[in-house]
């Protein structure tokens, strides 16, 4: 490359190879300089940066670009190619194949870095979910790298992604803090009971974050992760019941086991329903909200039982039930926002990026989980203050 003008004869195949590489570089440089892609990406600084990054990746230094040099190089290139083809040293088929592959990789990289948000009507059918959100949708991004990079771009899913990503990180932190408490403060059995709630919350928020991040990858991945998202909700409800039933029926072994069994069966039913292909379609949005709401509301039965056992106007039952009722109301409110798509149904196209129903639902889920954590912590403290059971493992006849 540095001694082009003093290039020796073309007899050596090594030289032919070196020349071809040089010409290939010139060609690629020219293609980039005159690329129609640049027109498409006009004004997009990100893609321009990528183009310059690509340039830095290519070894060697820039060639002189005077017209005389270009003419000379073109003439030499023709000679080189002729000699190569005639001597069978260049496989044109392989060259064409390589060039096509390189071009494909390049275009894909540019596309991934330079995609622009699209209108709802321009989305493929499998990405059309909420028609009250007009602009700002991600187009299909057929690579996980591009999906995860989209976390840092502004579109209809940005709020959904970040609400549950931050919520997930917060609960991971709370779990580590809780598990590291010394044993004299919280014993191992209680840590395991609380852990079921923490795992439910982390899995639910984590799956939700993952779903909203990769939902635009492809129809297959979108469906798979939406199923995981629903399974996460079922796990959160199950995990929330465990500590509540454990402390609520601390000294009443039989009802505790019966209620826990019912919760596990209902949770299993919700997960199986979530795995049903049609469950994630927009038409079944109210059905989805109803299934999880019914599962959550099934907690009313053990709650009434608990109050009957503890006494209706007992301070303890009022306090622990108060938090439980507040949690239930927050979940119901969230499910209503989600199912009815409020507020965007009243102002279509006005809540495309911020304030849409799904973001409100996400925030309410996090607040409800925090309220529940506070509620079960109070129940646990109350239980500790009471000491051991008077009559351990008493069965209550239902
Ligand atoms: Zn969500």
Automatic annotation (TrEMBL):
List keywords of the entry alphabetically: Membrane, Metal-binding, Transmembrane, Transmembrane helix, Zinc
Respond yes or no to whether keyword Membrane is given for this record.
yes
Cite the InterPro entries for this sequence: AdipoR/HlyIII-related
Choose any GO biological process term that the UniProt entry carries and state it. adiponectin-activated signaling pathway
Where does the sequence pass through the membrane? 161-180, 192-212, 232-250, 257-276, 288-309, 321-340, 360-376
Organism of provenance: Polypedilum vanderplanki
| PANTHER family documented for this protein | ADIPONECTIN RECEPTOR PROTEIN, ADIPOR/PROGESTIN RECEPTOR-RELATED
Gene Ontology cellular component terms for the protein in this record: plasma membrane
Coiled coil regions, renumbered to chain:
none
Predominant localisation class: membrane
Please name the taxonomic classification of the source: Eukaryota, Metazoa, Ecdysozoa, Arthropoda, Hexapoda
Query: In which domain of life is the source organism classified?
Result: Eukaryota
The keyword Phosphoprotein belongs to this UniProt entry's keyword annotation: no
Question: What name has this protein been given in UniProt?
Answer: Adiponectin receptor protein
Which molecular function term from Gene Ontology is one that the record holds?
metal ion binding
Question: How is this protein situated with respect to the membrane?
Answer: Multi-pass membrane protein
Annotated residues that bind Zn(2+) are located at: 212, 358, 362
């Amino acid at each position: 490359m540095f001694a082009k003008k003093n290039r020796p004869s073309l007899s050596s195949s090594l030289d032919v190879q070196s020349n071809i590489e040089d010409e290939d570089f010139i060609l690629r440089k020219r293609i980039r300089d005159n690329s129609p892609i640049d027109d498409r990406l006009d004004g997009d600084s990100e893609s321009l940066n990528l183009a310059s990054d690509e340039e830095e990746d290519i070894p060697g230094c820039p060639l002189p670009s005077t017209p005389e040099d270009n003419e000379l190089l073109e003439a030499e290139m023709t000679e080189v190619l002729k000699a190569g083809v005639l001597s069978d040293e260049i496989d044109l088929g392989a060259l064409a194949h390589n060039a096509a592959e390189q071009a494909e990789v390049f275009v894909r990289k540019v596309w991934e870095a330079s995609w622009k948000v699209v209108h709802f009507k321009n989305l493929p059918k499998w990405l059309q979910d909420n028609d009250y959100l007009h602009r700002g949708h991600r187009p299909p991004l057929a690579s996980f790298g591009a999906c995860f990079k989209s976390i840092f771009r502004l579109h209809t899913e940005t709020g959904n992604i970040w609400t549950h990503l931050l919520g997930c990180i917060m609960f991971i932190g709370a779990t580590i803090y809780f598990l590291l408490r010394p044993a004299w403060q919280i014993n191992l059995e209680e840590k395991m009971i609380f852990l079921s709630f923490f795992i439910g919350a982390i899995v639910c928020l984590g799956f939700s974050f993952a779903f909203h991040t990769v939902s635009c990858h492809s129809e297959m991945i979108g469906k798979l992760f939406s199923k995981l998202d629903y399974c996460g909700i079922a796990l959160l409800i199950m995990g929330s019941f465990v500590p509540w039933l454990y402390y609520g029926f601390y000294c009443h072994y039989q009802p505790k086991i019966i209620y826990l069994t019912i919760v596990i069966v209902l949770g299993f039913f919700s997960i199986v329903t979530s795995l049903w292909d049609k469950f994630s379609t927009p038409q079944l949005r109210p059905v989805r909200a109803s299934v999880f709401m019914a599962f959550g509301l099934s907690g009313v039965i053990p709650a009434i039982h608990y109050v009957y056992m503890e006494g209706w106007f007992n301070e303890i039952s009022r306090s622990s039930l108060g938090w439980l009722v507040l949690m239930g109301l927050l979940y119901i409110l969230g499910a209503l926002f989600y199912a009815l798509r409020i507020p965007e149904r009243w102002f279509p196209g006005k809540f495309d990026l911020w304030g849409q129903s799904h973001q409100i639902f996400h925030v309410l889920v996090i607040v409800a989980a925090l309220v529940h954590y506070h509620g079960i912590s109070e129940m646990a403290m109350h239980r500790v203050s009471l000491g051991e059971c008077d009559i351990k493992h008493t069965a209550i006849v239902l």
